[in-house]
Amino acid sequence: MRYERSSALFKAAQSVIPGGVNSPVRAFQAVGGTPIFVDHAKGAYLYDEDGNRLIDYISSWGPMLLGHAFEPVILAVKERVDKGTSYGMPTELETQIAELALSMIPNMDQIRMVNSGTEACMSAVRLARGYTGREKLIKFAGCYHGHSDAFLIQAGSGAVTFGAPSSPGVTKGTAQDTLLASYNDLESVAQHFEHHPEAIAAIIVEPIAGNMGCIPPQKGFLEGLRSLCDQYGSLLLFDEVMTGFRLAPGGAQERLGIQADIATYGKVLGGGLPVGAFAARNEIMAQLAPLGPVYQAGTLSGNPLAMAAGHAMLAHLAHHPEVFQSLDHKTEQLHLGMDSLLQPKRIPHQINRFGSMLSLHFTEQAVVDFQSAALGNNAHFKAYFHGMLDRGVYLPPSAFESYFLNDALSERDITYTLTAFDDWLKTI
Ligand SMILES: *Cc1c(COP(=O)(O)O)cnc(C)c1O
Fold this sequence. Notes:
By secondary structure, the protein is α/β, with parallel strands linked by helices. It folds into 2 domains: 4-69 and 322-425, Aspartate Aminotransferase, domain 1; 71-319, 3-Layer(aba) Sandwich (Aspartate Aminotransferase, domain 2). Helices cover 37% and strands 16% of the residues. The chain has helices at 4-16, 71-81, 92-104, 117-132, 172-176, 186-195, 221-232, 251-256, 282-285, 304-319, 322-342, 370-373, 378-390, 411-425; strands at 38-42, 45-48, 53-56, 110-114, 136-140, 153-155, 163-165, 178-181, 200-205, 235-239, 262-265, 276-280, 350-354, 357-361, 393-394, 403-404. The strands form 4 sheets. It has a 7-stranded mixed beta sheet, with helices on both faces. It has a 4-stranded mixed beta sheet with strand order 1-2-3-15. The longest helix is centred in the last third of the chain and has 21 residues, at 322-342. The chain is globular and about 60 Å long.
């Protein structure tokens, strides 16, 4: 395949956009080569600027659960756009999507719309702090909650320590309030509570981690977080930006049967338009402006086009719960197929899967946290990524990203993907 036009477009982009992209992973730094510029997309396929058709396994990093240019979403946006694109005043549509979302999400009374997952998590943490009157936050190494300051923290020495900023521009003060723990390691969390029994406002966690590859929670991990929060009077904050409306209508809370105190959403919720949201019970939401003192606002929050797209998306999911089984089945087929092709080759590998999320790590050890995810062989991963791209399959351009399957993928697409994988395996 050739990427002449993508190459030229990337070059032009680099002179006016830092790194040529508006979000770093798109720049292909982990895999090398030229980022693919998209012309359009439909169903399971991306069509790039060089005229190649690619089978898409990232689905815009999650939102396109039903495939690209999904007809009901496109129609809803088209119908709405002639009425104007933003008012800075309330619309009935906002109540409709809130009612629908809350009917799907377990355990929550109210929801506030924002414009991105980052904003949702940032606002949810402020609300947790305001509600509890506490300042500290526990987060897990390798979990991503958007790019707001409090979340850009990594371990100093060892996992259980005060955080040190992992990006210039994040102050030491902010870093000190973020306590870092290891995913799937309850002991690392318990220690923080022992040291700060009355200072921790919340634990923020991806109930199924998806930003260090896909890492499912081990049995008892999330249950343990729930009881630590109950014991110490902290809030359990599920970041469902990735898992919400993807793993089940009610996301990970429903799928795993664990109740969070606050949950954040994004991605699927917007049907491909910029939307985030956070939801909680009445007594917590009562702290939020204009009801309470915790401030949060947005000029474009509840934007009518975004709400129309999101409502069409959720309405389809609410009426077609079979979508979730179908996605699980396709992901399982891909998993089993890849596994059976890899076994005879004796290539050390781990495939992690939960629902329609999956990742392949070239490592011998089980991948259960950030440390084990980081052991993967990146040379293998690069060759694999480009080998599949050359065969028309677009995978996440980083070993630390999960695949997000979409329901437009057909059996034939999966079979083709496995054939391409087999073909690539023969070259190594
Ligand atoms: C994508 C993501 C975010 C950030 O959402 P943006 O819309 O990119 O700001 C937060 N948390 C999780 C778990 C995510 O996957």
